[in-house]
Write a structure and sequence with these properties.
Elements: H1 13-35, H2 41-44, H3 46-62, H4 77-98, H5 108-134, E1 138-143, H6 146-156, E2 164-170, H7 177-184, E3 191-194, H8 199-207, E4 215-217, H9 218-226, H10 236-242, H11 248-269, H12 273-284, E5 289-295, E6 301-307, H13 330-338, H14 345-351, E7 355-357, H15 364-373, E8 386-388, H16 390-394, H17 405-421, H18 424-440
Parallel strand pairs: 1-2, 1-3, 3-4, 7-8
Antiparallel strand pairs: 5-6
Helix pairs in contact: 1-3, 1-5, 3-4, 4-5, 6-9, 11-14, 12-13
Length: 444
Amino acid sequence: MSPTSYRVMGVHWALLLLGDGVCFLGALFLALFIRGSSAELLIVYPVSFLLLIALSIAVLFVAGLYDSKLSLFRGRVPRMLLGAQVASAVIATGLFYFVPTLGIAPKTVLFLYILLSTTLLLLWRLRVQYLLRKRTRTPVWFLASPALTKALEEAVGGNPTYPFTVAASADPESPGAAAFLEAYGHEHAAMLAVEYTNPRVEELLARTSVASTTMLDATQIYEEVFGRVFLPSLAPLSIRTIARSDSSVYVHAKRVLDVCVAFPLFLLSLLAYPFIVAAIKLQDGGSAFITQERVGQDGQIIRLYKFRSMSGDDAGKYGKEGTSTLTVTSIGRLLRVTRLDELPQLWNVLRGELSLVGPRPELPALVVSYERDIPFYRARLTVPPGLSGWAQLYQENHPHHGLAIAQTAEKLSYDLYYLKHRSLWLDISIMARTITVLLSRTGS
C-alpha cells in the first residue's frame, strides 16, 4: 500500500506569497493616493513598479519569511519584517535615486510605500497566525518507533503552525501494536501514519481491519517537520532512491548557475584579498593561503584553497582525541565568523570541483572514520560538495574541525534530505538563505 502525500505545514508558501503581493500592491496604490500622484504612473512606468514589488518579495524570501519553520511564529514576525523592510528601503532608495531612468517620482512615494507595506504585511501575517491558532487540528495516530513519535510530539504539540496533533502512538515492535490498530479502527475522525520501512508494519496491516485505510508515511511527516531524514528508518533500498542519478538537464543547469554566480563574486572578492593577506601576515608572518585535501564527488580527492585561519596547516592530521593539534588565530577567528577564509574556494567552484550548494566536503582522514562508523555515510558523496548546504543552514549542533561521530550523523540526516529533494529551485533557495546566515554571522 502506497502512502498518501500530506503537507504538514498549515499554510503553503504560495498563500503567503499571494497575500504579500496584495499587501505590496495595495501599499503602492495608497502611497500614490496619499502623495496625490496619478495612478496612471502605474501604466507609464510598469517595469519600475513591478521591479519594486519583485524586489520587496525577494528581500522577504532572503530574510526567511517564506521558511515554513520560521515565518509563522508570532514573536518573530515583527522583527523579521522590520529587518526585511529596512533592507528593501535601502536597496530601493539606491536604485531609484541613482538610476533615474527607472522613473519613480516623487521619491517620497518610496518612503510611503515602505511604511504602508510594512504595516499591511504585519497585519496580514499576524492575521494568518491568529487563524492558525483558532483552527481545529487533525488527530493522527502513529504506528512508528518511539524516537520518531516523541520528536514529533515535542515539535508540534503546542505549535498551531501544524494542522495535526499526535493523538496516540505505538511501537510496531511492541506486543500491543495489533490492539492499537484495532482501536484505531473505531476512530473515524483520526488519520493513521505508519513507518513503512519497519518490516513489522506490513505484517500488522495485513492482519487487521484497517488494511484498506488510506495511510500516511510517518517518516515523510518527520522530514517535512524537521527538514531532515529519520536515519533509523533508512534501508539500502531507500538510500538507492535518495542517491539517484541526476538528470542531465539539472546537472547542466546547476553548473551554469554556479558559474554565473561564482564568477562575479570571485572578481569582487579579489578587492578584499590585499587586506586579508596583510592582516594574516601581520598576525604571525606565516603564509596567507593554504591548500587542503577534501573528498569530493564519488570519493575523488580535491584540493581546496583557503585563507589560513589556524596557527599552521594540519593537513587533516589529528591527534589521539580526534581534534586538530593547531589553534585558531585571532585573525582566523574573524575570517571564519565572516566566512572570508573561504573566498578562495570560489576558484574551486569555477574549476568545477565544488558547487555553490551541496554537502560540505570533509577531510579524507575523517571520511574514513565516518564511513566505518556511520551507516550510509558514503551516499552524500554521490553529488558534488558545496560551499553552502542544507545542513549548514538548519543544523544547530555543527561538528567543528575534528572527529565528531554523533554530530556528523545528525549532519548526514540533513545532507540526505537535500539529496532526496534536490532541485534547481532548492539550490537557489539555499543560496538566498545563505545570505541571511552570512549577514547574521551564524552557521558553520
